[in-house]
Amino acid sequence: MNLGEKITELRKHNNLTQEQLGKELNISAQAVSKWERNLSEPDLYAIKAMSNIFNISIDALINNDKELEFKNIIIENKSGENYECSNCHKKYDKSDIYQIEPNIICKECNSKVEKQINTIVTDDVNVDTDNSKVEDKNIKKKKWFQSSLLIKFIISIGISLILMILGFVFGNINNVGDVVATIVGAIVIFTFLFQTFSETIIQDIVFGSFGKSIQMPGIIFSLDIDSIIFMLAYKFIIAPLIVFIVGVVVFLGGLLLAFIISPFTFFFTLPGVIEDCKDDDKDKLKNNIKNIEKE
User: Fold this and answer.
1) Among 163, 189, 205, 209, which has the minimal tally of Cβ within 10 Å of its Cβ?
2) Per-residue b/e over 77-109, b at no fewer than 16 CB within 10 Å?
3) Is residue 238 exposed (0-12), middle (13-18) or buried (19+ Cβ within 10 Å)?
């Protein structure tokens, strides 16, 4: 008799449905059904729990060479200990017996079984609690993901609207063309700012051009007073000034380039920005799950 057949026989002998057995083992009725049909096997924890519930040894349960024995041995003796527990095989008076049918179980063994079941239930509650923690953190992270996009949008659109209003108030608006130009300018500013706040090609251009400059060549000079003065002026005044000016020009050029192409790259980079935020959200959620498991 294989393991699946034994589980079926023991369950039916104890008048349990697959659902009832599954509840005691903290699993689904479908899992019990798969065990009984030998489509899957229970783990060691479930086998140990079933040995306690069915009051048989683990060896008798998993060893295919051993057949199940449902009969209980009753031994009469002079001391009155005429009941032998089918689980611990100790002899007891009737007052110390929890049940006689279908198996003789002493009160001590029954207490152990109840503790085992309570442990399973407690573990289930703990798992549900941990899952609730993960779900709560998942909801919080989703809210942060949504709010982070919302923050970028609000800041970008807010600055754009402010600049557009200032353009209408202080600008020389004489015709419809000026109005359209002001609105288009505000839209371009919005696309530029939104992509600058996100990991996009616009951000790469803006921050990539910042701090870029040239390396000034060294000079050869003689050891006379005029050459020394020129060398010091070149090293501490002229060279740093040229490097600074070139750096500013490169940065402004990158800024101008990013500003010009931002309306054309906006709709291409927007899906990537959303996906990056989702990936960051997943990574943070994984870290939270690991922290919960450590706790």
Assistant:
1) 163
2) eeeeeebbbbbeeebbeeeebbeeeebbbbeeb
3) middle
Please classify residue 275 by burial: count the beta carbons closer than 10 Å to its beta carbon, then call 0-12 exposed, 13-18 middle and 19+ buried: exposed
Lookup: tokens for 83: 């009941």
Residue 207 tokens read as 């921050």
CATH of the domain at 8: 1.10.260.40
Per-residue pLDDT of the chain (295 residues; tens, 9 = 90+): 788 888 888 888 888 888 888 888 888 888 889 888 888 888 888 888 888 888 888 877 787 766 666 544 333 433 444 677 777 777 777 777 777 655 677 888 877 777 766 665 455 545 445 555 544 554 454 444 445 777 888 888 999 999 999 988 888 888 888 889 889 999 999 999 988 888 888 888 888 887 776 676 766 666 778 778 878 888 888 888 888 898 889 889 988 998 999 999 988 888 887 776 665 555 554 555 455 445 4
Same domain, 23 and 34: yes
Q: Are residues 172 and 89 in the same domain?
A: no
- For residues 86 and 215, membership in a common domain is answered with no
Nearest-5° Cα angle at 281, 275 to 282: 90
Q: Which residue in this structure is represented by tokens 């600055």?
A: 159
pTM of structure: 0.41
Which residues are bridge partners to 256 per DSSP? none
Q: How many residues does the chain have?
A: 295
Residues 273 and 138 in one domain: yes
- Say if residues 8 and 103 touch (Cβ distance below 8 Å): no
CB neighbours (10 Å) of residue 166?
11
Is 283 in the same domain as 206?
Answer: yes
Which letter does DSSP use for residue 234 in this model?
A: I
Total domains in the chain come to: 3
From the list 195, 171, 194, the residue with the least C-alpha distance to 183 is 171
